[in-house]
Amino acid sequence: MSMDQKKQTAKAWFEELRDQICASYETLEDDYAGPFKDQPAGRFERTAWDRKNEDGSPGGGGVMSVMKGRLFEKVGVNVSTVFGTFKPEFAKNIPGAAEDPRFWASGISLVAHPHSPHVPAAHMNTRFIVTTKGWFGGGGDLTPTFPDDRDTADFHDAFKQACDRHDPVYYPKFKKWCDEYFYIKHRNEPRGVGGIFYDNLEKDWDADFVFTKDVGQAFRDIYPALIRRHMDKGWTAEERDALLHKRSRYVEFNLIYDRGTLFGLKTGGNIDAIFMSLPPEVKWG
Amino acid sequence: MSMDQKKQTAKAWFEELRDQICASYETLEDDYAGPFKDQPAGRFERTAWDRKNEDGSPGGGGVMSVMKGRLFEKVGVNVSTVFGTFKPEFAKNIPGAAEDPRFWASGISLVAHPHSPHVPAAHMNTRFIVTTKGWFGGGGDLTPTFPDDRDTADFHDAFKQACDRHDPVYYPKFKKWCDEYFYIKHRNEPRGVGGIFYDNLEKDWDADFVFTKDVGQAFRDIYPALIRRHMDKGWTAEERDALLHKRSRYVEFNLIYDRGTLFGLKTGGNIDAIFMSLPPEVKWG
Q1: In a domain, B285, yes or no
Q2: Contact B285 A265 (CB under 8 A)
Q3: Which domain holds residue B22?
Q4: Residue numbers of B annotated as active site
Q5: Helices (DSSP H) in B231-266: which residue ranges?
Q6: With b meaning 16 or more CB within 10 Å and e meaning fewer, what string describes B42-59?
Q7: Residue-wise pLDDT tens digits, B226-268
Q8: Is residue A251 part of a domain?
Q9: Count: domains in chain A
Q10: Do A77 and A22 form a contact (C-beta atoms < 8 A)?
Q11: Cα separation of B215 and B217, whole Å?
Q12: What is the CATH number of the domain that holds B231?
């Protein structure tokens, strides 16, 4: 496959996964019978955005799909395909960009913030990035306010199965990477209960692509299953308050440490798409 | 005056200013007759904290004064006096620290987040930092949800008067520095309506100290005057919502750009004191 075919194949998959996930979450909204059941079921709204390079030339763009529903306080699924030239000080930290600062990147990024403190928040992202090198990265992780051992075990197991189909070293390596990446150093606490995180995967394009699809499919299937376990249960004001405070850690992580946020800000991404990850309502202190 | 006397003199002033300001804000809580007047008037609670250096040796500490009242949703006044050794990669960016990485720093930092969308949020900080050099820095700025021309003019004028007593170049220079410093680049918008910002002031210790006192006193006097203009007025749910969204920009600025936050995180400061600036309730999107 030519590099151009690889790019188009990856991009098409990210968009297909987006469609599958959005349909699944709209079904969850329909099936929901929790405290806000008298409100209408949410539906995704799509907004396309264009990216321009600093010299004014076209730099790709993306589509944000955002739903504010009765189960999902806010869930955003962003697909974007962008290209341009890294600035020199940024290029030196990107594999293969020191030689030639041009880049192309496509990916799907999802963040879900449910209303209920009993339904975990979740994040998933997979991407294909091309410089003089070309690699996949991504992962998924879970952020419950009140961790549930069965949820945590099943979430990890879903990724373990996806990983083990490809390479026995993947799961332990990528789980550890996730724990390290999503650690809030200044708080000495993890952002959530983990999942997997991988980056710079460039072994064999076809195998790497199938693995990346498997990661996306694992997340696509397990998260709704966890949601259904808890979505109809009520909560107290204290439990909601605990959720709002838990979300403040999420904001701290994303604004201080997150690589994707930094990548977006440094490459002139769409600010609404970059900050789609931020929770709709948050409390500190 | 010996350097030791200068340190003690600066520290004592920051603590005296803290006492004056806290007393003034408690009076505002007493005098308040707005929508939450049936709640008890707020009072500051003080919490002392100790800082340890990485090698376990004492590194100073501070006292946080926090009030959650009926006028002030949250106001924090932190005084801290810390000392230790900068890490090499941090030292190279601090004046006078490349030669000798030891530092001493004392300061007062204040952030006020009123409940009412009609009462502006405000920030003030002054500090004395000693490496092989010794300099003052600080400033104050105002963040209204709905800017009021008279408030803005009077706030700027208070600082202009303080500046003009010392040097005619101060006000235009420090006002511009404030506008540049508190600019949220990724949003292409200022954090608020400005004020003044200065740093690395090391001309003449006595004059610099009196100037720094004048800056603190100007803020001490003007902010309560602005608060009294608006504090008893009611607001709509839409206006409150606008405040909560405005606060999200404040969080973005503080976590992505703020030098004081970075300084605190890099020097092992007290996390509650560092994040005292974050608003109690925030909305995104």
Answers
A1: no
A2: no
A3: 3-277
A4: 123
A5: 237-256, 259-266
A6: bebeeeebebeeeeeeeb
A7: 999 999 999 999 999 999 999 999 999 999 988 878 777 777 7
A8: yes
A9: 1
A10: yes
A11: 5
A12: 3.40.1500.10
